[in-house]
Amino acid sequence: MTLPNIEAKPAPEPLRHPEKAARPDQPSPRKPLWIRVKAPTSPEYQATRRLMRELKLNTVCEEAACPNIGECWKEKHATVMILGAVCTRACTFCNVATGRPDQLDPHEPQRVGEAVAALGLNHIVVTSVDRDDLDDGGAGHFAQTIAAIRAAAPQTTIEVLVPDFLRKDGAIEIVVAAKPDVLNHNLETVPRLYAEVRPGARYFHSLRLLDHAKRLDPTLFTKSGLMVGLGEARTEVLQVMDDLREAGVDFLTIGQYLQPTPKHHPVAGFVTPDEFEGYRRLALGKGFLMVSASPLTRSSYHAGEDFAQLKAARAAALGERA
Ligand code: SF4
What we know:
Blueprint: H1 43-54, E1 58-59, H2 60-63, H3 69-74, E2 79-82, H4 108-119, E3 123-128, H5 139-152, E4 157-161, H6 171-177, E5 182-184, H7 194-197, H8 203-216, E6 221-228, H9 234-246, E7 251-256, H10 273-285, E8 290-293, H11 303-318
Parallel strand pairs: 2-3, 3-4, 4-5, 5-6, 6-7, 7-8
Antiparallel strand pairs: 1-2
Helix pairs in contact: 4-5, 5-6
This protein binds iron/sulfur cluster.
């Protein structure tokens, strides 16, 4: 008997956001002209992409579908995402895949160090998915990554954009003890919208984390970011600025939220460049050392240049030379 020739079908791709699959599509308004960006095509962009593939590294630039990828990767500025490509939370704004997390790769810190040395970067931003499944939330892996970068590229300054380590006592202490140059933790939105936008997080826990990190090491630069266009009121944004200053945060970033897929939180409105400039001036008036506020501002956008300015701003405030 001849068996029918049945070709093996490839397994279907897992859903990136299984928890959002049943949500109705939520249309966003058309993007205004000031948001449009060019498709990434430069040879330098391709070279950065190749290196990330060769070293099997994830980047938030790709996973979050960042609109700045063409510009940043042309300059070899990629933000490495450690601890795997799958997040244990399910924020409604975020394009990073959610579900069962990857196994921890003990060699990842070394490969990040190699990538930073190969790219010849002055400044690197390292972020991660949330790893609520790990006892330390991944803090030890952050510390190993910082050490590996210091060993491979001692001149490079290091910025970490950490998760909230909710219910992981002692985690932020591990990261601060590894001595990054900048510790960033994004509040993302105003407290009223947390239940809808960041359901697994707690606003005051995130604020306390920033405050605690600064108290542990007052020489550390601390940074936080907000997205606008999610439905927040201007007065709520100003209150968040005050809260962040109370927590001693040095650097604030504010950018426009963009909806990654129709299943994600819809864009409630586009904030104009003039309104961003208004936020920037107000925040500087409240005492931040640095503020970056524009439609395409992201936590890691121009982070290297901004770090140089941040150091200069602190030195000026202390009456020293940078
Ligand atoms: S802004 Fe940040 S996340 Fe976006 S492409 Fe640049 S480095 Fe990557």
